[in-house]
């Protein structure tokens, strides 16, 4: 039996769908904070709240493999993940798969400290593991694409830094391949798109799909911060976006590899295809 935590999240839903393409529904369990949101998944549902460790023992009972999808609450992830890890140990789980971040144990990427700490906890637990170090998602740029189509421009502070993103469905397919395959124990996969792109290239793809000019304006971090604050974004979100663009400018999301393509047995979804589909949906 395979248990997916956070199964009603944006990535989790894709993983459940990918697993159902490979396995009978009775072999998949969705462990979620709000079971009522999982009624449409087509699999068994168990309540699992990262902040309530007492719910996790039942959620993972009988599991052979667990996909721990990292929590979304910055600053709370490490204790939340530790609670799932301890429940997995008590349940006798044979294989724990964790969605991490690029080069989590060595890169200064803004999002990495909690992933690095989680990976260390998992290694120390002695449980057989797989780390799926997902690069950025194409879907993170939906709002940018919408703004660019509407206004003919978007701004950032990433310079000519590159992003080796892929679609959520690609990363979900990789997770399903690991969860249903063999020989993945104690492996670390750096998952990226096949091609890394710049914001200028993103603007060009949006322009091509929308049939109108689209410009990217590169700002200094200070100008970027001021623009986001002026647009009404909360302080925490402003800090994160500016820090992430600084990471991109440094090349921390720009390295491509073959792990994703190898696991899913096909090329990753190209940026152009994603942008085109997004523009058509507006």
Automatic annotation (TrEMBL):
CDD domains named among the record's database cross-references: TMR_SDR_a (cd05269)
Every NAD(P)-binding domain range: 6-180
SUPFAM superfamilies assigned: NAD(P)-binding Rossmann-fold domains
InterPro entries attached to this UniProt entry: NAD(P)-bd_dom, NAD(P)-bd_dom_sf, NmrA-type_oxidoreductase
Protein origin, superkingdom: Bacteria
Residues passing through the membrane, by range: none
Protein name: SDR family oxidoreductase
Species, as recorded: Amycolatopsis rhizosphaerae
Lineage, uppermost ranks: Bacteria, Bacillati, Actinomycetota, Actinomycetes, Pseudonocardiales
């Amino acid at each position: 039996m395979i248990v997916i935590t956070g199964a009603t999240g944006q990535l989790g839903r894709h993983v459940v769908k990918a697993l159902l393409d490979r396995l009978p529904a009775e072999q998949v369990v969705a462990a979620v904070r709000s079971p009522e949101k999982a009624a449409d998944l087509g699999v068994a549902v168990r309540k699992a709240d990262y902040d309530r460790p007492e719910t996790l023992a039942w959620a993972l009972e009988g599991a052979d493999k667990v996909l721990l999808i990292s929590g979304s609450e910055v600053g709370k992830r490490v204790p939340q993940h530790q609670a799932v890890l301890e429940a997995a140990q008590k349940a006798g789980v044979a294989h724990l798969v964790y969605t991490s971040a690029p080069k989590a144990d060595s890169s200064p990427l803004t999002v990495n400290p909690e992933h690095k700490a989680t990976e260390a906890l998992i290694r120390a637990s002695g449980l057989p593991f797989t780390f799926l170090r997902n690069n950025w998602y194409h879907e993170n740029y939906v709002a940018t694409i919408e703004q660019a189509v509407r206004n003919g421009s978007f701004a950032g502070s990433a310079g000519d830094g590159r992003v080796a993103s892929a679609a959520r469905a690609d990363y979900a397919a990789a997770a399903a391949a690991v969860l249903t395959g063999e020989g993945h124990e104690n492996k670390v996969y750096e998952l990226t798109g096949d091609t890394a792109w710049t914001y200028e290239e993103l603007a060009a793809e949006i322009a091509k799909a929308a049939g109108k000019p689209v410009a990217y304006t590169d700002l200094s971090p200070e100008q970027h911060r001021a623009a986001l604050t002026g647009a009404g974004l909360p302080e925490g979100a402003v800090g994160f976006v500016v820090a992430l663009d600084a990471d991109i400018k440094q090349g921390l999301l720009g390295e491509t590899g073959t792990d994703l393509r190898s696991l899913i047995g096909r090329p990753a979804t190209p940026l152009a295809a994603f942008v085109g589909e997004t523009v058509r949906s507006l």
